[in-house]
Amino acid sequence: MGTRRTKINLAKHAGFCFGVKRAIKIAQEVAKSRYKIEMLHEIVHNEKVVKDIEELGLKKVKRLRKGKNKALLIQAHGMPRNIIKKAKDSDYKIIDATCPMVYEIHKTAISMEKEGRKIIIIGDKNHIEVKGIAGNIKSRPLIVESGKDIPLNKIKKIQKGAVVVQSTQNVQKVENIIKVLKKNIRDLKVFNTICAITRKKQREIQTMPLDNDIMIIVGSKKSANTKRLYEISRSLNKRTYWVESPKDLKKEWLKEASNIGVTSGASTPDYLTQNVIGRIKELTN
Ligand code: SF4
Predict the structure, then answer these.
(1) Ligand 1 pocket by C-beta < 6 Å: which residues?
(2) How far is the CA of 194 from the centre of ligand 1 (A)?
(3) pLDDT of 154-213, one tens digit each?
(4) Using CA positions, which residue lies closest to atom 5 of ligand 1?
(5) How far does the centroid of ligand 1 lie from the alpha carbon of residue 256, in Å?
(6) How far is the CA of 153 from the centre of ligand 1 (A)?
(7) Domains of the chain by range and CATH?
(8) Where would I find the H helices in 115-223?
(9) What does the alpha-carbon distance between residue 202 and residue 198 come to, in Å, rounded to a whole number?
(10) What are 118-162's pLDDT values in tens digits?
(11) CA atoms within 13 A on the CB side of 282
């Protein structure tokens, strides 16, 4: 520690994904308009970003209410169609920041449903992206959350099926589920819609903990994907630490580390990661 050899390696794909960056940019632009902008969900699961957005004048609400000059911001992960309809019926202007790749998942599910296929979504039931996919088709999809809870009795009854996947799912987990589905459904079309950015992030977290002496993961304790990064990293390198801000860093962690890997969850703003890197430099000098 404190030697000139200490190197900080920042993950290439750390932080916000393309879809979230784009949604935040749209939010910042519309904040300047004459509309009172409301959101039904946090734009990302990070308290600091939510606060920054609220300071621009965008408000998170629980329910839609009629009013003048109101607009609803649809965040990157999309939204069920009935909610958009309800907003329109309540005179909201719709500002759609759905990630184009999530929009593609909706299109795939809609067209497969038109082919008469039962839609199977691999993803987290309670995540807004999964609700958004389910809420953009007419029939009720089957949602598979993990390899442990595949409802085989229901699966075996499906004659024609189509699989789509939540964009941020774990590649390995999804491949295992798909194997089981293929075995049990004769006519199955599979669209593994985990996005390219998620795949790159997952590859990175498989190698970085092995290439570095310690790993620092930056992100909110509320963020599920930051937790996933932390767990993968920790399983590969015991010297993995999870910080929410620079003040969480401890000098003793950094002892005798020549290479320090830094990455952050998909909901962590770049400036926070940079602040953590700044503090690591101070502590190792
Ligand atoms: S599809 Fe990929 S880029 Fe788009 S919101 Fe999901 S994770 Fe982000």
Answers:
(1) 17-20, 76-77, 99, 101-102, 167-168, 195, 197-198
(2) 8
(3) 999 999 999 999 999 989 999 999 999 999 999 999 999 999 989 998 899 999 999 999
(4) 19
(5) 37
(6) 32
(7) 7-15+197-283 (3.40.1010.20), 18-98 (3.40.50.11270), 101-194 (3.40.1010.20)
(8) 128-134, 152-156, 171-184, 196-211
(9) 6
(10) 999 999 999 999 999 999 999 999 999 999 989 999 999 999 999
(11) 10
